[in-house]
Amino acid sequence: MGMLSIDENEDLLDPRAWKKERQPVLCSDREKGFYGPGHNSFTKLPDGRDICVYHARTYLEIEGDPLYDPNRHTMLMEVKWDGQGYPVFDYTNKVF
After folding, report:
1. Residues in Cβ contact with 63 at an 8 Å cutoff, skipping those fewer than 6 apart
2. How far is CA 87 from the centre of its chain?
3. In the chain, is it the N or the C terminus that has fewer CB atoms within a 10 Å radius of its CB?
4. Are 36 and 20 in contact (CB under 8 A)?
């Protein structure tokens, strides 16, 4: 899952103002058992915590086209923030 960013003073409607980050913010992690994360959205819990809603699967091997795998599950992850205001995506921040 990639991330776009933009300076707070830029025009949000100007496609040239957006910067695509070089590295994905979420990718498959064999050690943690998450594969093929993608298609995300953000929301807040009633207590104000930021949540990333995304889908992924918990198994490595798939048959057929991975984009049509019916077994990807919706997952929730709390998004933390570093000291510079950048989001920190970490599979250990799961919300149940």
Report:
1. none
2. 10
3. C
4. no
Whether the per-residue pLDDT at 65 is higher than 90: the answer is: no
- Of 46, 51, 40, the closest CA to residue 81 belongs to 51
* pLDDT at residue number 94: 67
Q: What is the arithmetic mean of pLDDT over 48-71? A: 83
pLDDT, residue 71, reads: 77
- Taking the alpha carbons at both ends of the chain, their separation in whole angstroms is 21
pLDDT tens digits, residue range 6-47? 999 999 999 999 999 898 988 998 888 888 888 899 999 999
CA distance 54 to 56: 7
Question: For residue 82, what are the CA distances in angstroms to 11, 22, 49, 52, 70?
Answer: 25, 18, 14, 16, 35
- CA dist 92 and 31 (Å) reads 12
